[in-house]
Every structure is written in structure tokens, then in C-alpha cells.
Amino acid sequence: MKEKVIVSWSGGKDSALALLEVIRTEEYEIAALLTTVTQEYDRVSMHGVRRVLLEQQAESIGVPLEKVLISENCSNEDYESRMREVLEKYLAAGVGAVVSGDIFLEEVRRRREDNLSKVGMRAVFPLWKRDTGELAGEFIEAGFKAVITCVDSNTLCKMFAGRSFDKGFLSELPCGVDACGENGEFHSFVYDGPIFRERVSIKAGAVVLQENGFYYCDLYPEPKPV
């Protein structure tokens, strides 16, 4: 019998690759994709992607999307409270673990494990301690397509926002920038690949520098041809 899990979902490449990995093991039943949405902007927290695009991702993947709504200035206590409420709902439904795309940040892993243990769940890290350069290559070779939605202006210039995550992008990353952006250098949105039944149609808009020091490339859902 497969173990029921939910997947921590940002819409980006690491969560997509983690989902593919757990699907390939054939050991898990994916109950939902779990994401946080900032209410004031109706966008994925940090990545800046519109909620409607995440919903289209989930529809194409064929897995329900569980949205946790948080405020722009949400405190850690409020965030953990809202998340715990959702996790307890899934625990009662037989879900015992949360899959995460974290790769090497020890503090992030410990925090996830501690928070999950409080509700009687565990964490699954299918990408843990894998070489990020190799993971980036595997993501591309698997047929995934992604666009860079935001970059940290302290490490990357504006030209990197809105670009495709491909070999050209990787070859131009400055020395010291992680190939998967694991240190927060950049974030992405995946719109096609082996986990999708059909491509998510998107259109790139303007790139804007926000107060948090990140360049954001706005993505719009593109109407499907009739």
C-alpha cells in the first residue's frame, strides 16, 4: 500500500523535480500540492507568481492544490498556526508526510522537520544533498521547461529575470551563484515537463525591481487557442 503524502509546492523547478522523484519511486500516493499565497497580491509567496497559474499547473498535473492564505506581513507564529491547521486536516485523512524540494540548507530542513513533528508528520527530501549542478542538468534533460520569475539584485542583474532556465542560463551564472538558486539567488515557474498532461500557457510581462531587492518578471496566463 502506498504512503499518502502532500508535496510542498512553490511552482518552481525544485518542487517539480521533487514531485517527479517521488512519482518515479512508485511508493507514494500524492494527495495534494501545498502552497502559500499572499492574500494582498493573490500570488505565490516569494516567487511572485499569480495564483491562477498555480491552479493551472495543478490541473495539468492532476493533483489538487491546497492553498494556505497568509497576509503580507504574516508573523512566524501566524504562519505556523495556519499551516498546522491544514496539516492536521491531512493527517486526519491519512497523510503521514510532506515532500520538500530542499537540497542542502540544514537550518531549513531542521525547521521543517521540527514543525512537522509537532503534528505527528514527517518530512521527505528526495533531492537532499544531491549536487545542484547535476540536478539542474537533470531537470533540463527530463524535458522540464521553466522561466525565471525573480532574482536577487544583490547577486544577479536584471537581465536574468524572465529568462528560460536552460543550459545558456546556467552557463552565464556568476561564480558563487548556485545552479539551483538554493541560497535564494533566483526562483522559477515550471510550465511544461514530464509531470504535466499539457503545457501551461504563459506570457512574460515587465521586469520590475521591488522594495525587497528582487527583480520580478510578471507572468500572465495566455489564453489557449480556440
Mean pLDDT, to the nearest integer, reads 95
| Helix content range | 25-40%
The total count of strands amounts to 10
**Series of H and E elements:** EHEEHEHEHEHEHEEE
- Major pleated sheet: 6 strands, mixed
Secondary structure topology:
Layout (H helix, E strand, L loop, with lengths): L2 E6 L4 H13 L2 E11 L4 E2 L6 H11 L3 E6 L5 H17 L4 E3 L6 H12 L4 E3 L7 H10 L3 E8 L14 H5 L14 E7 L9 E8 L4 E8 L5
Parallel strand pairs: 1-2, 1-5, 2-4, 5-6
Antiparallel strand pairs: 2-3, 7-8, 7-10, 9-10
Description of the molecule:
The chain is of the alpha/beta class and 226 residues long. 30% of the residues lie in helices and 27% in strands. It contains 6 helices and 10 strands. The chain has helices at residues 13-25, 51-61, 76-92, 106-117, 132-141, 167-171, and strands at residues 3-8, 28-38, 43-44, 65-70, 97-99, 122-124, 145-152, 186-192, 202-209, 214-221. The strands form 2 sheets. Strands 1, 2, 3, 4, 5 and 6 form a 6-stranded mixed sheet that branches. The N and C termini lie far apart (42 Å). The mean pLDDT is 95.
